[in-house]
Amino acid sequence: MVSNPHFYGQSTTGTPNQIEDGVDFPHTGIIKALADGLGQNYAISGFDITFDSATQIDVALGVIFRDGKRHEITAVPNLVLGRTDVSENSYHLVVVDKDNAIAIRTPSDKDKVANYTVRTLTGGTATEHKQGDTVIAVVTHNGSNPAPVQYLTVDKAENSLSIGYSNNGTYAEGLTIDTDAGDTTIENKVADKDIIFKVNDATAGSVVDRLILYGDNDPSYPNTEAKIEGSLLVTEDIQANKLSIGYGNSPSIGVAEISSYSATEDIAFKAGSGSPERLRIKAADGKVGIGTTTPSSSLEIQDGLTTTGAVLTLSTKEPSVVANDVLGQIDFQAPLDTGADSDLVGASIQALATATFSNTVNATDLILKTGASETATEKMRITSAGNVGIGTTAPTNPLHVVGNALFGTVTGSEGTAPRNLNLVGADAVMRIARTSANGDPSIELINLSADGNTRNSYWDIYTDGDRLSFRSRHQTGAVSQDIDIFNIAELTNNVGIMTTSPANTFQVNHLGADANNGIMIVREDSSTADGDLLGGIGFDSTDGNVPSSVLESSAFIASIATEAHSTSDKGGNLKFGVSLINENDDTVSTIVANVGQPDTTANATTHAGLNSRATTAVVGAATYAPTIGDSGTLVIFTNASSNLTLPSVNNTTSVGVQFTVFNETGSAINGQIAVTNSATINGGAASALDDIASFKAATFVCSGNNTWIRIG
Length: 712
Fold this sequence. Notes:
Blueprint: H1 28-38, E1 41-46, E2 49-53, E3 56-59, E4 62-66, E5 69-73, E6 76-80, E7 90-96, E8 102-105, E9 120-122, E10 129-131, E11 134-141, E12 149-151, E13 161-167, E14 170-179, E15 184-188, E16 195-201, E17 206-213, E18 226-228, E19 232-237, E20 242-246, E21 254-260, E22 267-271, E23 277-281, E24 288-290, E25 299-301, E26 326-333, E27 345-353, E28 364-370, E29 377-382, E30 388-390, E31 399-401, E32 442-448, E33 455-463, E34 467-472, E35 483-489, E36 495-497, E37 506-508, E38 533-539, E39 555-561, E40 572-578, E41 590-596, E42 609-612, E43 616-619, E44 623-624, E45 634-637, E46 643-645, E47 658-663, E48 673-674, E49 680-681, E50 697-704, E51 707-711
């Protein structure tokens, strides 16, 4: 006898090998795979096979049904066939193994179909564990690319369950279970028969009914559609159109009633026999009323009299409340809107414990949360002490604002605000507005005595419509003693110190007295050394970088310490500097003049004065024609074709204009100094006095109208 292992595809007990023969056609292995499929172990869909070569394939993802479950299988590339002799045919099996991985099973010889691992029963009868392959396809190797493939998929996308019974020797369908993308349907196929759910009740010592869905009315419970034994009985009174919820075996003993008189009537809830209505759901709009039959909103509660009114309580079940426990919360949300952020909680009101509760403590903060593109987060808090915080979770005053704030009644686009305001923050902005009929808007800075009755100092910042002023005010408030110290004119933005009408960008008025006679630029340094910058004024433009150092300006006037400073040594000089033409940003400018001691004092007795470098023009084979404004320039000729045209001095205001010419050409120059307006040199024609010997110099000085004097 050959024992039946009771698993499809296995030939004998303990022998996983299939029966083989030499027929050149897929045979016993395929028969075994088909038989295995009858045992609910089959490929459903997918698993498209692509040949990379005659000996290598790629298998796409697919779905199998194994042991009552649907499994999605991952694609596998580059699977190599085991038998690759082009002189023979061999039939390989593509399978999903017990680990749900796609694999190749190779035949033992040519002209045969491969064997595969069948499912086995392990663990005895108590625990069934099925292992083995699910066959997808038979792949032929015959040297072709592609080669023939026989798929064993069923393309079965849905499963249904039919439960039948023998009815006088004839199969009858009793119940079906079907499912699709939406619903699962359980249907009793036999008319007027019940669906009964039973449990093994250890207390009762037997199998008992727990839920009965009646196919027809039970005579014991007329007009009843379903019964839950032991705890709840739900019946439908067809005559009165009421749904009664009772207990025990007597549905006439009702504990609540839900009434619906018609499709257009409301649903009312009553508690207790003969009790008044407690809750109503309006049929017309779905509004819910508690204590009222005419709710005016989605939920309306009417209750209480005089000073009580209706009370809605949110309470926690936590028996030991500690800090940060939530006592109750109301969320506002649009869960049906489409989109990620729109489904989040948009706003919340939360009661948060801030201490451990006891007989004497119930400290609770009320928190308001809102969101913009995220779950609502805290924006405002009222603490148990009554402090209100906006932008802070720990307000320390009755109103504590972190961030920008507007206080007061807005009138027009500009608005108004009260006088008392404290703003603290990196981006704090305060607006004080007052209509012209009520005086000038101002900010007062007052230092008061401890009792608040005496002004120790009194300042304010105000605007009268024409300027912004910083004012020192008399402690008694006498207007005659108010002094506008710093003023910014509205139309020009000119800044004035000790003047309310600055005529230029910056104007300083003074009284000519000690401590009130000018501007001081002071280095605040307790270790000023020789060569340190005491201060300066720079001149530059916004074209390019504005220099961070005065000494890098396009032009500057600066003071440099000429010795280490102390109470007895305060030496310093004045430097004039300029940036040279074509010089880059952030380059220290060139010092062209010095007022004071010379920088070099070694081995000499020096005296303060003015020293400077000459303004120089080096001229090649060209004509240099300076203006009167270039007076004092040293002109150096470096080419035999160098020329100079002196400027016009056809007036008496150019007296003293001078130019020095140095001949560096290596030979004498002749006729290369020209004048305008027939001006004379030393009382004669210019042509007679324009020769300069090699490496010699001549200075030409204007002495009057069209008159030059040559020196040298």
